[in-house]
Amino acid sequence: MEELFGVSMDIIMAVLLxxxxxxxxVVAFMAWRNPVMLKLGLRNIPxxxxxxxxxxxxxxxxxxxxxxxxxxGDSITYSIRKNAIDALGTIDQIIVSARADESDTIGSFNYxxxxxxxxxxxxxxxxxxxxxxxxxxxxxxxxxxxxxSLSEGRMRITGVDPDSLDGFGRFYLTDxxxxxxxxxxxxxxxxxxxxxxxxxxxTGDELVTFVAGSDVTFxxxxxxxxxxxxxxxxxxxxxxxxAQEMFGREGLINSIAVSNLGGVFAGAELSDxxxxxxxxxxxxxxxxxxxxxxxxxxxxxxxLDLLRPSLGEKLARDLGVLAQGLGEVxxxxxxxxxxxxEDVQEVVLNGVSRAGLADVERQASTLFAGLAEFRxxxxxxxxxxxxxxxxxxxxxxxxxxxxxSIMVGVLLIFLIFVMLAAARRSEMGxxxxxxxxxxxxxxxxxxxGTAYSLVSxxxxxxxxxxxxxxxxxxxxxxxxxxGTGAPENFTMFTHFEIRSLVVAYCLGMVIxxxxxxxxxYRVSRLNIVAAVRGLPPPVQQSQTPFRDRLLAPLRAxxxxxxxxxxxxxxxxxLDISRGMGLLLRSALAAVTSPFGFLGAVIQALWVPxxxxxxxxxxxxxxxxxxxxxxEAAPLRIGVTLVIIGLGLSLRTLSRRTGLRPDVGDRxxxxxxxxxxxxxxxxxxxxxxAVFGExxxxxxxxxxxxxxxxxxxxxTVMYNADLLLKVLTxxxxxxxxxxxxxxxxxxxxxxxxFRTGLTxxxxxxxxxxxIVMSILTEAFSAAVGDSxxxxxxxxxxxxxxxxxxxxxxxxxIDGKPSLNNQDITSIGGYTTIPVEARQVGAEEQRWRFxxxxxxxxxxxxxxxxxxxxxxxxxxDTQEDIWDAVRRDSNLVxxxxxxxxxxxxxxxxEIPFELEGIFYEDTGMEAIxxxxxxxxxxxxxxxxxxxVLDRLTDAFGQLGVGMIAxxxxxxxxxPFRIPTTTYRFKAAExxxxxxxxxxxxxxxxxxGMESDVLSELVDNIAAANRAINYVFTSFMGLGLLVGIASxxxxxxxxxxxxxxxxxxxxxIGYRRIMVQLSFLTESSFVVIMxxxxxxxxxxxxxxxxxxxxxxxxxxxxxxxxxxQIGIIVTIAYVFSLATxxxxxxxxxxxxxxxxxxxx
Amino acid sequence: MNDPRSTAAVSAxxxxxxxxxxxxxxGIHKTYDTGTVKVNALRGVDLIVERGxxxxxxxxxxxxxxxxxxxxxxxxxxxxxxxxxxxVVLHDLPDDxxxxxxARRMGFVFQLYNLLPVLSAVxxxxxxxxxxxxxxSESRKRSMEMLDxxxxxxxxxxxxxxxxxxxxxxxxxxRALVNQPFIVWADEPTGDLDSETAGEIMDLxxxxxxxxxxxxxxxxxxxxxxxxxxxxxxxxxxxxVDHGNGQSPVT
Lengths: 1157, 251
Prior knowledge:
- The complex is a heterodimer.
- By secondary structure, chain A is an alpha+beta fold.
- Chain A contains 42 helices and 25 strands.
- In chain A, β10 and β11 form a beta hairpin.
- By secondary structure, chain B is α/β, with parallel strands linked by helices.
- Chain B has helices at residues 4-17, 65-73, 95-105, 121-131, 136-149, 165-177, 195-212, 223-228; strands at residues 21-33, 38-50, 54-58, 80-85, 88-89, 106-110, 183-187, 215-219, 231-236, 239-242.
- In chain B, β7 (183-187), α7 (195-212) and β8 (215-219) form a beta-alpha-beta unit.
- The radius of gyration of chain B is 18 Å and the shape is globular.
């Protein structure tokens, strides 16, 4: 994994280390200078073992979550890389005909003479970076094992020249023996492991391969390890000359594999260089010269300059080389290399088009098409890059999902240290009383905190890696069930990069140390007398004059300078030790000055902010920024700040009236809480009505969760006494329980900060789990709607391109096992990869897309739902399908190429329509052009409809615009056989059996058939399973919440020892004491669960309503069982954690407790 | 240790001798064993307190006064001997029944006030009533009356942190008396108070003792407090050296 949220991991690591290492160094230095404080700080650790254990568990959790996220990202990156490397072996690039398209790694139709390979070998003889060139043929053909009767519809047939294998390694049988291709006879073949598995084939078996109506029999001479030339996926390996004969391509090949110098990984690093060199070699210099003079125009260069800033780093650099080369006399290799780059060509054509030179554009386009003879596909490098991207993507998702848990973890760390401070209060007060300075207290506290963090961070990272291993394990299980969109044979491997471990550890450490620092600072401000006597801290009013507070931020920066200057002065007067000491302090102050500055700024602004008016002003400013930029985050935070500011102003005002302060506060705080809650709960659509269209990503979910939960907890905590009254009233009839309840509610309500924090943690965790469950349910239900997804078809079947069926109805008649009566209709289409662009759009580059050329029956029978359609072509969806059928210039596109307001974009399909949004209520017909890559032929089409998202399960069952195949047949000079069939079964026919029969009957055509409803169920099940993985990952936060309750309870037992003695003295039984503790935890858990479930349900409802505008079948339903399980787990485990402290409390001996001070 | 037959016999004997005694303790031994050190806190103490009596237990620090109070009231276990309260052999009761007994029959006043800081004055006072199962409305009524009696009805809704030391101790007394106990145990009830407040507290306790006839057992350092009691029991090194009424202890 190379990047996180688009930032290089190296940079992240460097920044974290730059923060972490100096901080640790400073702490170590302080410890060395102050061994007494170190001792005082550390001696507390072994004293209370259970408390120490809980603290470590708590701190551990947030590191664990991060390490798990990173571990999963690394594993995915590594797995994709490993799968790719295993499949490609020593192959680094593949050379195919320039007419083959981008996605066509085996060349298929575009053959070229074998002689061309021989010439190339001579031309490249002096090129050191290439150590192997292998000419070959790659085709797909259905194959049957006669012994086992098992078949494989897409068997890859690879023809390899035994004399050109230098640099590609050798072939080894699975038992480790080497096998030489020279020994293969004309009817001998090797198969790879995948083929052996698929056909259950062993050495000596006879395999029959079907090609264009005839069949060829091979005898298996051995099973070889997959990878490299032996391929990944079922592959049959034969001699090149035999393959040429078999496919009727004597003297021709369709690909040349290139192996770079070095092993499987090292080869990829030379890829850029080799690809560049090969492109120069393949470029027709005369055409390049024509292009050079044609494009060397002022207006073109200007346009290219304008385009450059919007391009990626590499492309921008290439464009620079191109622009320079255009102005020069003659052509450098660099210039030719970039000119041959297809990405550069697209930009150039776009620039020419922007310059308004239509003629030049047309000519240049033609010249570019003839510029290169071959296309060089840097397959390995692309796959490795894709692996890195996927890894970063998944880590980002896990981190975002984990943000709540991490947030809860941070709250827990804070809570832990706040309580630790409370526990150490009298001790620290005593230390202050006998002369310890504030700095000493801070140090003492920091030493203790650092000790906890160092240990628990390490444990957390280790456990996090364990968690990611579990995630990998579960993911593998899910992949095995299929339907995830992950390629077949894809296996995940657990893998961690050292860098990720460092980042996870340092991130955890920095968060913890920051929290320790803040709580240490809080502790150091203690009032000595109050601390020693155990009294509540007196309310402190800032006495610092306003001017001083304003100057304080400047002073934070002045301090290191003045210390340094004094130090230098001392050195100048030869007072070496003092000078060095001062310089050291100056360095320390320089490190801490940014924090000091920040603190001083906050202090300076605190009073006007807390009076309210400044908060309102800054909130209004943010709101304005949000509306101006259409960004949701500043807008919503801004409005929230305005509400809080108004509440604070209300409080300030109430102080000036004769209102009792507590009543005034209650009104003000309740206003803030309820106002914020209401603002965040109102549906997005109402917000849009006020503020217009606003953009917000997944981070808004996080922010809204935090805001809502905070507001709810705030409101509850400030009105808890009312709650208490209600509870007292309700429990009045239960005599014995009352004394227990009174105590159980009074304590948490008295410690508002602590209870609020715990409550917030619980509520947040439950909130995320509920949202996740409800959304999983909603989506599964929608994706699982097979009727809708499959457009009314029952079975989907694909046949091999090389062995198509001419007339399926006729063919069925010829199969004794099948009956045409069982099938009411059969539709078929072929997917043709094309390039497309929109007429008159901003983007004029040709972008990859596909056409599904469908037959009349398909268009007549499909029930696929349209989200949008052009009213000029019909009033109903049926009219639109009818129009597409009748007029071969009309097409319907899938939802993947239509942008969305709500971030549902799909990056897999580069082509995107402009001027239309998925959420629109209607559309006008859109003119597009489609280019067939092999012929370069351009066809003009009109888009008159957009499929809804559910159709084909978000593209998982098929991608591409749907057009009438008659149009394509006319436009494209070669035959396009039907490769995909869809069947509707007659009433009463068992679809599963029909599907199996079809597959068996058309085995020779390589038919692979699936029951659509099963396929859809699989996809839904896989989606659900992946969501469960996410849910359980988020459930880690629940552990944090539970640990926090344990910490709080344990602390409570210690704090209340004496009071428990009193309770026992006045007649509380043991069980009553225990019950009161358990009830106290229950109170927090139940409140947390109530807030979490309530808010989670509300926000999910909003989200589902919002999604319904895109995907109507998404239904809001509450998964009661799942929520029940979550709530039960939360409750039972919380009680279990509190049980021990509660029992401990009940065992307190009254006489002893009363003596204890 | 506590053979029921022998204890019953002893009780019978005591009742014969002292028909009006409410507390009868015989041969109380209590040893604190910390693992390394053994402290003989009580070495065979005998004590009889009559119904309605106000007894002050005095002696130097560490002589076992508080231990004796804890053992007599059943807050602490004893190693040997017997405590009979109003005819009930206290340490024969299981923990739960002893808790209930305390809730119904006893009241406690401690030096450190020991009010629950999270409950208001009136809530603190009504706790013993709630524990003994009195109806909430009744509890509140009686607690308010009790606070009125100690002169704090206007502070009923205040938290302990908002009251002065004397006021807190008066709340503690109100709490100790609200369930109309037979016996009130007070450990250094004026220990933390200035002499004027201490005097007021003692006035209050003496008045309650006189009006209601409740038995008071006080542990104190203060000679002023001692003077207000009916008699002073003096202790030294875990033993009673003077019963304060010329009677020799029952053996």
